[in-house]
Amino acid sequence: MKLLMFNTQPYEVETFAKIANDLKVEIDWTEEGLSLDNVDKTKDYDAITIQQHGNLEGEDLYKRLAENGIKQISLRSTGYEIIDLDLANKYNLKVTNVSGYSPRSVSELVLADTMALLRRLKDYSKREERNDFSWTGGQAREIHNLTVGVIGAGTIGSASARIFRALGARVLAYDPVQRTDLADTVEYVDVNRLLSESDVVTIHTPLTPEMDRFMNFDQFKKMKNDAIFINASRGGVVDTDALVAALEAGEIGAAGIDVFDGEAGITSVDLGDKGYDNDNLKALIAMDNVIVTPHIAFFTDIAVYNMALFSTRDAIKIVNGEEAIYPVN
């Protein structure tokens, strides 16, 4: 069996070689993203995997994949909003993701951001650059005295909940599905109560139509003025204009942002002197009470390996007429 991996990053190449050997398949790769311009590269392959930020748009792309004998699109990522599922269904393309790749990778970054923001590490670091070693305004709170609100208590959200609970925090959760295995970890509440009572709010939801711009200015106003907001899910679940406005107005105290609107062409790229055109991102990076990272919550050794492995396994299963482990449609 032959597979073609689109959007290959340098750190994935060694992983692909190991997986090809372990699963006894042939894997080729390209740095290009899948598009109508290169879709015919798939003619010589049984299956594909992708990892990209830009949408797969246009009916011709899905039609050509099917005509070329491709039966699936396996994402080496959790989010699948880049796929037009109606078109995928129309052309009998099974879509899979890797939702279980390593929940702790994301959760540990959420914890790291929370601790750094509580202890004002960015602010202290910038002060020291000015030879200011004073303590003014830096007295911190401790996690075990805080309430943490988790919006979306699925695989990753529940891992975040367990980490904060292990540190002694009270944990609230908002999710239409109430997991029995979290009974000793979280208290399920409505979103208004979660926002108003939490000292830290972390969001872990897919970018569905219901969650598009879910965190708007009205939502931020419900939060405590010294609360921390963390987003390591999808940029689109937050109205970034509203986030910047809420921070500037003191409606919330701080933010840790790993994903953001307009990140395609910015994250994972060294832009050097070229710079970038994203005023909200520039505003967030400039704030002492905001930590911005370039979509790296997933970026651990275990997660990178599992994302490639799980997507490849599901692609093979679909080609062999078996049920995928992580189906989307």
Rounded radius of gyration (Å) = 21 Å
How many strand units? 12
Query: Which secondary-structure class do the elements indicate?
Result: alpha/beta
Mean of pLDDT = 96
Based on the structure given, which CATH architecture of the largest domain is correct? 3-Layer(aba) Sandwich
CATH superfamily of the largest domain: NAD(P)-binding Rossmann-like Domain
- How are the strands of the largest sheet arranged? 8-7-6-9-10-11-12
Q: Beta-sheet strand percentage?
A: 5-15%
Helix content: 25-40%
CATH topology of the largest domain: Rossmann fold
Q: Give the overall shape.
A: globular
Indicate the low-confidence ranges by residue numbers. Answer: none
How far is it from the N-terminal to the C-terminal residue, by CA?
23 Å
Sheet with the most strands, sense and barrel status: 7 strands, parallel
InterPro entries: D-isomer_2_OHA_DH_cat_dom, D-isomer_DH_CS, D-isomer_DH_NAD-bd, D-LDH-like, NAD(P)-bd_dom_sf
Protein name: D-lactate dehydrogenase
Keywords: NAD, Oxidoreductase
Pfam family, one: 2-Hacid_dh
Write the layout of secondary structure elements.
Blueprint: E1 2-5, H1 13-23, E2 26-29, E3 47-50, H2 59-67, E4 72-75, H3 85-90, E5 94-96, H4 103-118, H5 121-129, E6 147-151, H6 155-166, E7 170-174, E8 187-188, H7 191-197, E9 200-203, H8 217-222, E10 228-231, H9 240-249, E11 254-257, H10 279-286, E12 290-292, H11 301-319
Parallel strand pairs: 1-2, 1-3, 3-4, 4-5, 6-7, 6-9, 7-8, 9-10, 10-11, 11-12
Helix pairs in contact: 1-11, 4-6
